[in-house]
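This part of the workshop introduces the protein records we will be handling. To make this concrete, we reproduce a full record directly below.
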Amino acid sequence: RITIVDENGVVATRSLRANNDGVDVTGPEFLKVRDVLGRERVVIDSQGSLVATGGDGLTLQDRIDILNAENLNYYSKVRSRYNADIQRLVFALTMIVWYGQSLSTNQEGWPALSKEAYARLGNLMLGNSVRPNSKTSPSFTPLGVSSLTPLKAVVQSITGSSVLTDAEVAALSPGAGNEGEGAVAAVNMLRTLFLKHMSLLEDPDRRLVVSNCGVNGRTIEALSKGADPELYNRIRQAVSQIKAIADGESKSFGIGAFCFLQGEWNYSSSQGGVTTKDAYKEKQLQLYADFVADFCSEQSPPAMFTYQTSATYTSDTNELAIGMAQLELAIEHPNMYGVCPSYPFPDKGGHLTSNGYRWMDMYFGKVMFRVLILGEGWEPLHCTSAEVQDNYALLNYSVPYPPLQWGAPYVGRTATTYADKGYRATDSAGPLSIASAEIVADTVVKLTFSRKAVGTVKIWYADKTSHNGNGCLKDSDPFRATENYVYTEGSGQYADENIPELVDKPYPLNNWAWAQVITITAE
């Protein structure tokens, strides 16, 4: 072990682990040390002078190495955080409740891609669609039949009252608001991974059923219990009907997960909903509490899986209030899990393409599997802390699968990158131009500013003003999706959905950084 002491006799707070040839005196430096990890440090330069390392005895790279080690340790603790309180998928009939506004119901998600009912998986839905026969009714009246049917995706008429044929789907006009896909792929992926993990070809004694109870264009208030009309009643009726079927067959029944995809209308002050971070957190907490009290009194509380509202729906007003509320709940509440932001996926100007929805479904399937089957803890990719000195900032990230890397999110159907990688900064003197954004360690991002930062610094990632709610930071998660990106000419897909780097390949499941505002004081 090499211990480095400065000219004042102060021992550096970090020492290097020496190997057999770790002290290099071959020059041109007089003394250079190298540890077992291959890191080098000059102690005495070629002129015989002790190399200055700063007031705390650390070089910038030393500081980055320390931060990176701390960040890696942070997420190792996250992953080992087993949640014994949430419900597992143990019932003969386990229901997955899907709820929210238009990105939950998959508006414009046509043509449907997950049209095959996988018999081996045994997944089910109530009626001939995961959605009811009306887009907006406060009742959940099953489409077509009131029995459980094999799970598959369909595209419904604009009112929701019928299933469109493939020819009718192909004839839809661009921008048509018909709903398709609808969480089918998420539940299929969860079931597939469950069977693989249990070394089972099938499991007819335990089956999943999903109901998509969302309503497009609604605030969280409109979707909450007691609203007028009470759209929350769609959940109540879906649960009661499926439970009645289970009871009639003498099967155990329970709810295995509550998936909530909402926030777009609360980013708009014109829709009448709360627009501040704390108020939105309160509304989501109440929705979850009501859900547990109303439907889960005879079981453990189910985990709540959410996404982060982002991309074009973002608003910088109130400092990304809705997205920050969603992030904080995903970190603070033991039963709430943040799956992914909504910005990376191919979209049609806000609503996603059918591939975009199915791609996002893969993330929900992945995280539900990790939490509910593997029993792992989970946090989304986000900045945990930052420090600013002189003209640069170091951002520390909670990273599910290091190392960090830059990516190109899809804006519309085009992979898009930004010179500043999606970051914007201000300080007490005004706008703080970003000269460069670099990944300097597995879990650390360095931003270099065009001048010295002063006072209170705010660093925005995936803001509305400069990036329309998009950013370029992701991790290296190798998790394999169970479905491939699909393009079929003449099916109703737009021509530019034919993206060569994606077609016929599994959807990549790197975790993307969540939108954030980080506030720190410059040193």
User: Anything to note?
Assistant: The chain has a mean pLDDT of 93. DSSP finds nine helices and 24 strands in the chain. The longest helix spans residues 60-79. The two ends are 33 Å apart (CA to CA).
